[in-house]
Amino acid sequence: MRRFAVLVLLSTCLSWSAAAGAAAAAPATADSSATSAKWDVANPPSDGSHGGWGWHDAPLDVDTGTWMSVDVSPDGATIVFDLLGDIYTMPIAGSADGSQVRCIAEGVQWDMQPRFSPDGQWIAFVSDRTGANGKGG
């Protein structure tokens, strides 16, 4: 299923790229300001406008993950991990019922590869969310 979603996303990106190239070659019209809205990774249009694909939330319950990044806190008490683009923490001793798993970064943006700082006070991770001045976060 994930492979299919990646292929759909890739083909969508390629079609956006082709459309952008065609739009760059076309003369500007009075209507062009309506289609040049700034893209926000965390808030994509859900109505199909401006390249939106009409996405919606779907419930997902998993008990296994692959291609996950895991890090242990310097004090050895907590782990941080990524799963399907979100970042979670939990006690290293485990949480059989999931009650001690805490989501610390979630949303449409893709967050991954979390790491504890040497003093354990911070968690750094890679993300495609928008940062300052339109640069990646």
Short description:
With 137 residues, the protein is of the alpha+beta class. Helices cover 20% and strands 22% of the residues.
Task: Describe what this molecule looks like in 3D.
It is a single chain. The protein has 137 residues and is α+β, with helices and mostly antiparallel strands. It is 20% helix and 22% strand. It contains two helices and six strands. It has helices spanning 2-25, 32-35; strands at residues 70-72, 78-83, 86-91, 102-105, 111-116, 123-127. It has a four-stranded antiparallel beta sheet, with no helix packed on it. A two-stranded antiparallel sheet has the order 5-6. A hairpin with a 5-residue loop joins strand 1 and strand 2 (78-83). The longest helix has 24 residues, at 2-25. It is globular. The protein starts with a helix and ends in a 10-residue tail after the last strand.
Compile the SSE list and pairings:
Elements: H1 2-25, H2 32-35, E1 70-72, E2 78-83, E3 86-91, E4 102-105, E5 111-116, E6 123-127
Antiparallel strand pairs: 1-2, 2-3, 3-4, 5-6
Q: What profile does the largest beta sheet have?
A: 4 strands, antiparallel
Uncertain runs with pLDDT below 50, 5 residues or more?
Answer: 1-35
What's the helical proportion of residues?
Answer: 10-25%
- What's the total count of β strands? 6
Note the beta-strand portion.
15-25%
Q: Rounded to an integer, what's the Rg over CA atoms?
A: 19 Å
Helices and strands, in N-to-C order?
A: HHEEEEEE
Shape: globular
What's the overall average pLDDT, rounded? 74
